[in-house]
Design goal:
Layout lengths: L9 E2 L12 E6 L2 E5 L18 E6 L2 E6 L8 E5 H5 L4 H19 L11 E2 L6 E2 L6 E2 L4 E10 L2 E7 L10 E4 L6 H13 L3 E12 L4 E10 L12 E8 L12 H10 L4
Parallel strand pairs: 2-5, 10-14
Antiparallel strand pairs: 1-4, 2-3, 3-6, 4-5, 7-8, 8-9, 10-11, 10-12, 11-15, 13-14
The structure holds zinc ion (ZN).
Zinc ion binds next to loops.
Length: about 270
């Protein structure tokens, strides 16, 4: 999965250090990232002008990554859409961009206090923002969501989302609501999206998924009772039982969804 970047090491120890020329600087525009013309992530020394403030994000081995909330476009660089770019790069670069994008969005969307409306300030000691006026402290936003491998003997339930740019096969998924355990979410989502009941719910693996600020929790379960699908058409374009041998091989398996599908294909779950 994309977070498995060994032998590289992800170090997210918080720091308020300043950027230097050798550090990498990320600028996002919508769901696009600013790249050099040769498709690499630019270092600070490659910019004609640096913004007033750069946010330290994390370190991969000895390389430090920063982001800016400003547009840093210059003529020898271009903004590339993230999802197509992910398909061209290795796991480590995909992980860097997912994680940087999540932190960027959090900083961008939390300039002001949601309680009193005054400007927020960066903490000196931890990844947090705080309000000097009312004392409100805001930590990074991480949304837990479940990915569900629902089995029916030698088949697995696959779906295609309605109203999304991603049109490939997916597994059922949904956000954990306040008051729920992830297992509760599995039961509720399967019932809401395809009208089925489940049993034998087992945790499989997790994955940080920064482009949507998610923490994905993978579960495997079996259909309980009827296998007839009743589609929730606002959410899904289609859902069907797909046999193990009809699942396409995906050697990269950067996503938890793909990893679960391949595990089923290979009789591992
Ligand atoms: Zn406040």
């Amino acid at each position: 999965m994309l977070q498995n970047i060994a032998p590289h090491r992800f170090d997210n120890t918080y720091s308020t250090r300043s950027i230097t020329g050798e550090d990498y600087l990320l600028s996002f525009r919508g769901r696009e990232v600013l790249l050099n013309s040769d498709d690499t992530i630019p270092q600070a020394k490659e910019f004609n002008h640096l913004p007033e403030y750069c946010y330290y994000l994390f370190r991969i081995d000895e390389k430090c990554y920063f982001c800016s909330l400003d547009s840093l476009y210059q003529e020898d660089m271009y903004y590339a859409a993230l999802r197509p770019y992910f398909r061209k790069v290795d796991n480590t670069t995909e992980f860097i961009l997912h994680t940087a994008f999540q932190l960027f969005e959090w900083y961008r969307d939390h300039c002001f206090c949601g309680r009193c409306g005054k400007p927020l300030f960066r903490s000196e000691k931890e990844r947090a923002l705080y309000c000097k006026e009312c004392g409100n402290t805001i930590y990074p936003k991480i949304s837990p969501a479940v990915i569900i491998a629902l089995r029916n003997d030698d088949s697995i339930l696959m779906s295609v989302y309605a109203n999304r740019e991603y049109k490939h096969y997916a597994l059922l998924a949904g956000f954990v609501e306040i008051g729920e355990t992830p297992e509760d979410t599995v039961i509720r989502e399967v019932n809401e999206e395809v009208g089925l009941h489940v049993k034998n719910i087992q945790y499989y693996a997790s994955q940080p998924w920064g482009i949507d600020s998610d923490l994905l929790l993978g579960y495997v379960c079996d259909v309980d009772g009827s296998t007839e699908i009743t589609l929730e058409e606002d959410e899904l374009a289609s859902a069907e039982w797909v046999k193990r041998e009809d699942i396409e091989e995906d050697l990269r398996q950067s996503s938890l969804t793909s990893t679960l599908m391949q595990a089923f294909r290979n009789h591992e779950i």
